[in-house]
C-alpha cells in the first residue's frame, strides 16, 4: 500500500501549454491522414470501384451509349462524357468512409478519449473532415489522370481539372454529413456501410451520370431533378466540356458553361448547409454531456 | 520503486511545489475532488447516483468499489465531464464540472473502462497524439513520449501498430496516454478488468509508482484484492449511494470479527444442522453464519479463541469436519456484509484463494 503524501509533490506543475483552434485542427488532420496512409485499403477500394465502372462502362456500353450522347452533345465521345460522372462517384464512395471512421472511433473508444481531452470539439471535426476532403481531391485527380490516359479530353485543361476537383469536394460535403449522421444514429459499422452503399447506386443511376437524361424514362428524369448527383455531375461535366449541359434547370443568364455551373454550385452549397447542420446537430448531441 | 526518477524528471520544480501550484487556480484547499449532493438521473428515470457526498484529498489513492450497475462508471463520467450532473455540486481540481469543463479536462487524466487506443497507430503515435491533444509543449513531446514508453515498458514495440498488442499491452498504452500532461489527478475506470494476473500486477506497479510521485488516483474496481493492495481509502457504492467509506482496515473491522470457514464431509443436510449449531453456540455473540459450497462460514469476534470448541460441538453432533480455516476478513467479506451479495467475479475468487 502506498503511503499518504499530505504535502507530497501533488502540486508539481502540469506539463502543458494552451490549445489553439488551429492547432487542434492540425492535430486531427494529421491523425486522419496518417490513418488513411496506414490503411491503403480505404484509399484503394474507394478508387477501385469507380475505376472499374469507368473501364467497363466505356468498353461495354461505349458504342451504344455513345449514340445517345452524340444526339444531345455532338462530337463528344462516351469516355469524355463519363469521366466527370466517375469523379463524382469517387467523391460519393469516399465520403462514406467519413462516417465509417467516426463509427470506428466510437467503437474503439477514441471518440470518448477526444471528448475528455481539452481539444476544441469543433476543431476536432473540422480537422477530420479536412483530411477526408483532401483525400477526395487527390482521388479525383487520379481518376482524371486515368480518364485522360483512356482517351478522355478535358476541354478546359488544367484549370478545368482543378475546377472538377473543387466541384467534387463541394459535392462530397452533403454525403460526408449524411454518412456521419448514419454513424451517430446507428453507431454500427456495418449499418453505416450498408446504409451509405445501398444509396450509392440508385443515386448514380437515377441521375445524368451515365446517360443523358433525354434518353431515360420520364420517372427517372423526374427523380433526377431532386437527385444531388445530377447537380454534381452536371457541374463537373460542364467544366469538362466547357458547355451548358444541364437539362433539369434552364438558366441562360450567365452564358456558356456557367449556365450549368452557377446553379449547380448553388444547389450543392445549399445541400451542404442542409445536411451539414443536421450532422452538426447530431454530433454535438452525441458529444454533449447532457444526460439522456 | 526502482526508477522513480525516470518519470519524476529532473526539471519538475519540486522545490517550489509547496503550496497551491499554478495549475490549481482558485482553490486554496487541498482537495482533488469535492462532491456534494450529487444526483444523476438518466432520461428513462433510472437514478444512477442519488445523493452522493465525497471528498478526495490531494495525493490520495482512492478506490471506488461496487457491484456491476451500482453507479461507479456513471460517477467517474460525471467527474471526467462526460456526463452533466442532474443535481448537486462537483468540483474537480477546484473547477466546477458544469461551468468550467474544459479546465477540468485540462487538469485530469482519464482511462476509460474500455481500452481506448487507435489500433491503426503505433504505440509511439498514440502517445504523441495524446501529447498534442493535451497541449504538451512541442519541445517536450519527444522526451515525454520516450519517458512514458519506458514507464509502461513498451519501448521495444514503440513502432509497432497497437492492433497487434495483447490486452495487457493495450491497457498499458492506454494508461500512458492518460498521463502525458502530468495531470495531478487520474481517473482509472476498472483498469485491470479482463487482464491475466501477471499483466494486472504490472499495471498495479505503474499505478503505485505514479501515486508515489504525488498523483491523486481515483480508481474503480470490482476486484477487492486490487482495492486492498492499492488503495489508502475506499468507498463502496450500492444502488447509487455510498454505503461505506474508510481505509481497507477500517472496513474490515466493520465486518465484526474473524472468519471461520468449516468444510463438512457429509451431505447437504449436514450444512443446515451445522448452521443451527453455530447459531446456538454460546461463545459467539452476534455471529453471522452462512452456508458455503462445501460447508459453513462463521464470522464472529471470538472466532479465533473459541473456534475449536465449535468444531468439537459439531463432531459431538455427529457431523464430519473435513477441513477448517480461521482468517482475518477480506474485502470480499466486507462486501458481503455491506451489500448482502458475494462478488461473483474472478476477482472475488482471487481474494478467496489468497486467504486459504
Automatic annotation (TrEMBL), chain A:
Keyword presence, Zinc: no
Membrane topology: Multi-pass membrane protein
Keywords: Membrane, Transmembrane, Transmembrane helix
PROSITE patterns: ABC_TM2
Matching Pfam families: ABC2_membrane
Cellular compartment(s): Membrane
Transmembrane segments: 40-61, 81-103, 133-152, 158-182, 194-213, 261-283
Domain ABC transmembrane type-2: 41-286
Name of the protein described by the UniProt record: ABC transporter
The species this protein was found in: Natronococcus jeotgali DSM 18795
From TrEMBL, chain B:
Keyword Transport: yes
Keywords on record: ATP-binding, Nucleotide-binding, Transport
SUPFAM superfamilies: P-loop containing nucleoside triphosphate hydrolases (SSF52540)
Span list, region Disordered: 1-30
GO biological process, any: doxorubicin transport
Regions annotated as coiled coil: none
PROSITE patterns xref list: ABC_TRANSPORTER_2
Domain spans labelled ABC transporter: 33-264
GO molecular function, one term: ATP hydrolysis activity
Xref: SMART domains: AAA
PANTHER family: LINEARMYCIN RESISTANCE ATP-BINDING PROTEIN LNRL (PTHR43582)
Family per similarity comment: Belongs to the ABC transporter superfamily. Drug exporter-1 (DrugE1) (TC 3.A.1.105) family.
Name the record gives this protein: ABC transporter
Organism expressing this protein natively: Natronococcus jeotgali DSM 18795
Lineage: Archaea, Methanobacteriati, Methanobacteriota, Stenosarchaea group, Halobacteria
Amino acid at each position: 500500500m502506498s503511503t499518504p503524501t499530505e504535502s507530497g509533490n501533488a502540486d508539481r506543475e502540469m506539463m502543458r501549454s494552451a490549445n489553439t483552434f488551429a492547432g487542434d485542427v492540425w492535430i486531427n488532420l494529421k491523425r486522419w491522414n496518417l490513418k488513411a496512409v496506414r490503411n491503403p485499403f480505404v484509399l484503394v477500394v474507394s478508387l477501385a470501384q469507380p475505376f472499374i465502372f469507368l473501364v467497363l462502362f466505356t468498353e461495354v456500353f461505349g458504342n451504344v451509349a455513345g449514340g445517345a450522347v452524340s444526339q444531345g452533345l455532338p462530337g463528344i465521345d462516351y469516355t469524355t462524357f463519363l469521366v466527370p460522372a466517375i469523379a463524382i462517384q469517387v467523391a460519393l464512395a469516399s465520403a462514406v468512409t467519413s462516417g465509417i471512421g467516426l463509427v470506428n472511433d466510437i467503437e474503439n473508444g477514441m471518440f470518448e478519449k477526444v471528448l475528455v481531452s481539452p481539444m476544441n470539439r469543433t476543431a476536432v471535426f473540422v480537422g477530420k473532415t479536412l483530411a477526408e476532403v483532401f483525400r477526395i481531391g487527390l482521388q479525383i485527380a487520379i481518376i482524371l489522370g486515368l480518364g485522360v490516359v483512356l482517351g478522355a479530353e478535358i476541354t478546359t485543361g488544367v484549370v478545368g481539372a482543378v475546377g472538377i476537383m473543387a466541384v467534387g469536394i463541394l459535392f462530397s460535403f452533403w454525403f460526408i454529413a449524411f454518412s456521419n449522421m448514419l454513424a451517430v444514429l446507428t453507431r454500427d459499422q456495418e449499418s453505416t456501410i450498408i446504409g451509405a452503399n445501398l444509396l450509392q447506386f440508385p443515386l448514380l443511376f437515377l441521375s445524368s451520370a451515365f446517360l443523358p437524361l433525354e434518353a431515360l424514362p420520364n420517372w427517372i428524369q423526374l427523380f433526377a431533378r431532386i437527385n444531388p448527383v445530377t447537380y454534381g455531375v452536371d457541374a463537373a461535366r460542364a467544366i469538362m466540356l466547357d458547355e451548358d449541359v444541364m437539362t433539369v434547370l434552364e438558366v441562360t443568364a450567365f452564358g456558356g458553361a456557367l449556365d450549368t455551373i452557377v446553379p449547380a454550385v448553388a444547389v450543392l452549397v445549399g445541400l451542404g448547409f442542409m445536411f451539414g447542420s443536421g450532422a452538426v446537430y447530431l454530433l454535438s448531441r452525441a458529444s454533449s454531456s447532457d444526460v439522456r | 520503486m526502482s526508477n522513480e526518477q525516470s518519470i519524476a524528471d529532473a526539471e519538475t520544480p519540486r522545490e517550489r511545489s509547496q503550496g497551491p501550484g499554478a495549475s490549481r487556480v482558485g482553490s486554496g484547499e487541498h482537495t482533488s475532488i469535492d462532491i456534494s449532493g450529487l444526483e444523476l438521473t438518466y432520461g428513462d428515470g433510472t437514478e444512477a447516483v442519488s445523493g452522493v457526498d465525497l471528498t478526495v484529498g490531494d495525493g490520495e489513492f482512492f478506490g471506488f468499489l461496487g457491484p456491476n450497475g451500482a453507479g461507479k462508471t456513471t460517477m467517474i463520467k460525471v467527474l471526467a465531464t462526460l456526463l452533466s450532473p442532474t443535481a448537486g455540486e462537483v468540483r474537480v481540481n477546484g473547477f466546477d464540472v458544469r461551468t468550467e469543463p474544459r479546465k477540468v479536462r485540462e487538469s485530469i487524466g482519464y482511462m476509460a473502462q474500455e481500452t481506448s487506443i487507435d489500433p491503426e497507430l503505433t504505440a509511439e503515435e498514440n502517445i504523441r497524439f495524446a501529447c498534442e491533444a493535451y497541449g504538451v509543449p512541442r519541445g517536450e513531446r519527444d522526451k515525454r513520449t520516450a519517458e512514458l514508453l519506458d514507464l509502461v515498458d513498451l519501448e521495444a514495440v514503440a513502432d509497432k501498430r497497437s492492433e497487434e498488442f495483447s490486452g495487457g499491452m493495450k491497457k498499458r498504452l492506454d494508461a500512458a496516454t492518460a498521463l502525458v500532461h502530468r495531470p495531478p489527478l487520474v481517473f482509472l475506470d476498472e483498469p485491470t478488468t479482463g487482464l491475466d494476473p501477471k499483466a494486472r500486477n504490472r499495471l498495479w506497479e505503474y499505478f503505485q509508482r505514479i501515486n508515489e510521485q504525488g498523483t491523486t488516483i481515483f480508481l474503480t474496481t470490482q476486484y477487492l484484492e486490487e482495492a486492498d493492495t492499492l488503495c489508502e481509502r475506499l468507498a463502496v457504492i450500492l444502488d447509487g449511494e455510498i454505503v461505506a467509506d474508510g481505509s481497507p482496515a477500517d472496513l474490515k473491522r466493520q465486518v465484526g470479527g474473524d472468519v471461520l470457514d468449516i468444510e463438512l464431509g457429509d451431505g447437504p443436510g449436514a450444512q443446515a444442522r451445522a448452521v443451527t449449531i453455530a447459531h446456538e453456540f454460546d461463545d459467539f455473540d452476534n455471529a453471522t453464519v452462512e452456508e458455503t459450497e462445501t460447508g459453513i462460514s462463521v464470522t464472529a469476534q471470538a472466532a479465533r479463541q473459541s473456534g475449536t470448541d465449535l468444531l468439537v460441538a459439531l463432531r459431538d453432533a455427529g457431523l464430519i469436519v473435513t477441513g477448517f480455516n480461521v482468517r482475518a476478513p477480506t474485502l470480499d467479506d466486507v462486501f458481503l456484509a455491506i451489500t448482502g451479495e458475494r462478488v461473483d467475479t474472478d476477482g472475488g475468487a482471487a481474494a478467496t484463494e489468497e486467504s486459504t
